[in-house]
Amino acid sequence: MFMAKAFIKGLINVVSDIDPSQFRPADPPPPRRPLNFAETHESEEEKQFRRVFKQLAGDDMEVSPKELMDILNKIVSKHGGLTTDGFSIESCRSMVAVMDSDSTGKLGFHEFKYLWNNIKRWQGIYMSHDADGSGVICDRELPKAFKAAGFPLNDQLYKLIIRRYSDEHGNMDFDNFVGCLVRLDAMCRAFKTLDKDNNGTIALDIKEWLQLTMYS
Description:
By secondary structure, this protein is an all-alpha fold. The chain is 58% helix and 0% strand.
């Protein structure tokens, strides 16, 4: 019990001076609608994306973690400017979990489109903040990159993120950069949803805490 209290106190100290109002997560994907309604009201760009999505997702029109891993690794393998050891099945399970708004275990069209647009935007940020052209984001480049993505954090939280997502030299490759931002974006959206009074605090019971943290 003492260790648990010390751990929680340490986390509180790390995030105590962070202002959630400064975070800029992307707008959440729209709720799932019947296919015939969605196709009727989509723009030409969305219709084109849906055709691509059908080819990627298969007959069930949903992307599983394994399918997401195959899609992302196929794309990054063709991009010479990105250093990555490949998206793992575990990182893709985590990405699907935090994006899975209807708890199907897979990504529907709008969930996948939301993730895809974010990854494209984060790719641009990653490459523009790789100042030395090494193909990775080093610990000195990370704060500006995260701020550009909409997440200004304090030094203590950066140190935690570097320990979790970077290698022993403090370098973060592309798949870890995306995996970290997917989780950070989802957690910030969840916090803003639960912060009904917009006062920067939320209250959770044990069931809500476990639902929020275990399937992510």
